[in-house]
Structure formats: C-alpha cells, structure tokens
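[Q] Does anyone have a clean structure-token version of this?
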Amino acid sequence: MRVLAAMSGGVDSAVAAARAAEAGHDVTGIHLALSRNPKSYRTGARGCCTIEDSNDARRAADVIGIPFYVWDMSDEFHEAVVEDFMDEYAAGRTPNPCLRCNEKIKFAAVLDRAMALGFDAVVTGHYAQLETGPDGLIEMHRAVDMAKDQSYVLGVLTQEQLAHSLFPLGDSVKGDVREEAERRGLMVANKPDSHDICFIADGDNAGWLKEKLGDRAPNQGGDIVDQGTGEVLGQHEGTTAYTIGQRKGLRLGRPAPDGKPRFVLDIEPVSGTVTVGPREALRIDRISGVRARWCGTVPERLDGTVQLRAHGAEHRARITTSSSDGTVRDLVQIELLDPAEGIAPGQAAVIYDGSRVVGSATISATARSEALV
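[A] Here you go.
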C-alpha cells in the first residue's frame, strides 16, 4: 500500500514508520506543523509541536530512507483544537484536546488530504490494535501493553477512518520499541515522551487560559461555596482555574469541620460559583453523553465497560443509546456498576466491549443515584 506516516518527532511514530516501510509499504513521512509560532509552544524535546521535533522527524525519515514533508496545519489546529479547548473551559467544561486533535486533525484533515493525494492509509505511532471482525468491519482493540494503551484517545474514530489507518505498535511494549529504535539507528530512541497539553508551553493551564481568554472568560471571579451549608468560604479569580474533583489550589485558609480536605464538586461559569465539599460527594453512577461517535456497528444497548480518563480505570457499565433527531444514535446514557469520582462535563466516555472499542461520547451531565446519597 501507499501510506502516509505521521511523524511527530518522537520515538513511537519513527518506529511505526520504519515498520511500515519494512513491511513493504510505499511510505512517505510527514510532520504536522501545528503551531502558528513554534517558539510559543512547548520546547525541550516533548515530541509534538516544536521546531526541534520537526528536525527530529526529518532525521528519522532520512535514516529509514523515506521521503519527508512538513504540512502546515496550524490554522486547522488552532480552530479545531485550541479554540475548542478555550470555548469548553469558558463554558465550565473540561475538554480533552488530544481526542479533539485525533478527531479533527490527525484522522480527518490529514486522512482526507492523504486520500486526495492517492495514499491508501495513514500510519501513526499510537498503541492500539486493528483487526477484521467476523462481520467484515475493522475493529479497534486495546494495545498489548496496557500501560501504553492509547485506544481511549482514538475512541472518536469512525469505521471509515479505521479502514484507512495502521497502528504498527499495537502488539509491542514501550521498552522494546526504544530498543528497536536504537538498533535502527534512530536518534530519538531515548527522547522523552510528550506529556500534558502540547500547546501550553509551561503546563500552567489556568494561567494560559486566563491570559488567552481575556474578555471571553465567563467571569473574573466569584464565590467558593460549601455544598452542605451554603456558606461562602472564599473567593476566586475565575472558574477556568478549576476542574471537578480538584483538591489542591483552593486556598481556603481553613479546613472542613471534620478536618478532611474539600474537593471541587461543581462549577457554574455564569455566576462564577465554585461549589466544594467532601470527597464522597464526587461519587457518581449516572452519565449522560452527547455527540456520540461509533467505531463500527452502533449498539442500542450494551453491557460493557467505559473509560472516563486517558489513563483511568475501566468501569463496568450498562450503556443505552438514542437519537436526538431520529437519524443517528448520538445520545448515550451510562449506568456505572462501578461508581466513579471527579467526572466532569466535557470529558470523554469511551465505551468498550471487552478489549474492543465500541465508540465514545462527550459527557454532558453526571448524577448520583439514591444508592450513593
């Protein structure tokens, strides 16, 4: 096949490209320039958006012996990922920009352009496995190395996108990949993994949001209120500094009457009210989801599991789907048999049937049944 290898400048994408070439595919490497100003994004070999990363990807392509190009997708990235991230926080939600990037950039804009140029598939260094199911559809499964499994952030992919994707690292473990990179003479063999959000240079999400949102911020401050008593415990300078489940950084100056720490339970972006309370009040077992995306056949009902964070645990769950307009089943109701804590609107609920990824939905609301009250 004629395949396009998305090369971030990190070790995983380099080895994935090398394996694709070794398998006999006609491989062309590309690096996505996602920053309008690369110096404003994270530096220090973080494997994502910097000039150093572009150079690392180019050197890896030279070693593999494949053509290499840089695609400027900074405008698409800013609109679909960065602006979305700011809009979601301004609305009091907690988005996952990595899922949005996979959905809108790496497996939409890139794949569309690749197909238009005559490529058959896009290969990436994600840790997930693809196989053909008994119904002839392409199934995505968790990676062999559960510590590196990235199926959660790929849960937004559709059947059409999976049919034109290759994930050569799905059956590997990270240590073996680094050793293979060294054997192949790839200089990125010992390059650190990327972490956090690539477009926030110092990892200070709250500070970045405060600076970038400016007048778009929903409020410039408000009350921190105790859930149980309604007492105003303190003030804050903006709700974008808080997420559901947060414990540190509340700066209340006094403990709860029982001496236990308080956690953020709710964020109201219009009034600016941040509600805090005990950890047990974070427990939920009901989730509503919107904008569902399905990897294959859409289930009406499913007894499976859901994952609610990129590196979170699986929760046994009963999933029911419905339609908002009578055409596609884009709404999801999830009953957690294993309650979860600190789940916020805007996060993604990725649905599994065993190791197979069924699909995903954006969490719109959470609730506690009487059994948890």
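[Q] Thanks! Anything notable?
[A] Residues 159 and 296 are 5 Å apart (CA to CA).
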